Amino acid sequence: MRYLLGLYILFFLPHTSVCQDILYLIDGTKMQVKVLEVEQNDIKYSSFGSTDGSSYYVSRNLVVLILYQNGTSQIINPYPPSVDPQWYEFFSKSKNIKSKDFDTYYANPNMISINALALANGDLTILYDRDLLNNRFTFTGLMGYNFNSRMGLLNLIISDSKDFAKKKLDSGLGISYNFSTTKRVQGSIGLQSKYMTFDYKEMIDTTNNSKNYRDEKGYQLSFMITNGWLFRVSSNFNFKIFTSVGVPVHSFALKPIYNGYPKFYLGYCFGYRF
């Protein structure tokens, strides 16, 4: 590896100039800059000859050595890897450093997940998330099917409203603003609508001491504010938690008392990103 470093120096030094600092990167790139500060993880610099005061950062992992304008040099990576094209990106006026490995966590804009917490309410709920506008916003759609009407508080409320009432389906749409988009833990806040349907039986007569029923459907529409956190465990596996709080805006066939209750929806989701 020291022999490789020596090749870097022998190859690049004859082409340097003494009027600016030179950054030699591991992919063979030579950058003419003004080095402002060598930090623990990054190197801060400005474009040579720039007058607008903009500063940039580059990861130390991408730099082999620095040759200063006074002729001195500083070795950053004494054991650089083979000279292969490497990915790097610079951001002006901020310390938003990205690397190839980190960027892969944001490479896939779609996610399909299952709400594990909904299983406690007898629901099998699938969510679809789509990142928009450079991950600043996320569109969310959900669809749930109730496979056990005897599980959970919501099912008890529904069964108390009508004869033989059973929750059937959940659906919803939401949009959220992601206030943290450069880290693997991403926070968001937004709005969500949720539509719930249930089946019940309406008694139509009681002739001959018997009760006759017909099948009917009820529903509830709610709007909620939602706050959540997304954990980008890997480029393909993500974990998300969220809490939604709001009020029903319209219900049909639920008892009026239940329309005054606040509406809650909680998520504990495991998802595949693609």
Structural topology:
Layout: H1 2-12, E1 21-25, E2 30-38, E3 42-47, E4 56-59, E5 63-67, E6 73-75, H2 100-103, E7 110-115, E8 123-132, E9 137-146, H3 153-161, E10 166-178, E11 185-205, E12 212-231, E13 237-252, H4 256-259, E14 263-273
Antiparallel strand pairs: 1-2, 1-5, 2-3, 3-4, 5-6, 7-8, 7-14, 8-9, 9-10, 10-11, 11-12, 12-13, 13-14
Number of strands: 14
Low-confidence stretches: 14-18, 84-101
Rg from Cα: 30 Å
CATH topology of the largest domain: Porin
Number of domains: 2
Helix content: 10-25%
What summary fits the major beta sheet? 8 strands, antiparallel, barrel
Assembly context of the chains: single chain
How are the strands ordered across the major sheet? 7-8-9-10-11-12-13-14
Under the CATH scheme, which class of the largest domain? Mainly Beta
Overview of the molecule:
The chain is mostly beta strands. It folds into two domains: 2-98, no CATH class; 107-273, Porin. The chain has helices at 2-12, 100-103, 153-161, 256-259, and strands spanning 21-25, 30-38, 42-47, 56-59, 63-67, 73-75, 110-115, 123-132, 137-146, 166-178, 185-205, 212-231, 237-252, 263-273. The strands form two sheets. Strands 7-8-9-10-11-12-13-14 form an eight-stranded antiparallel β-barrel. A hairpin with a 3-residue loop joins strand 2 and strand 3. It is rod-shaped. Mean pLDDT is 83; it is low at 14-18 and 84-101.
In short:
This protein has 274 residues and is mainly β. Helix content is 10%, strand content 51%.
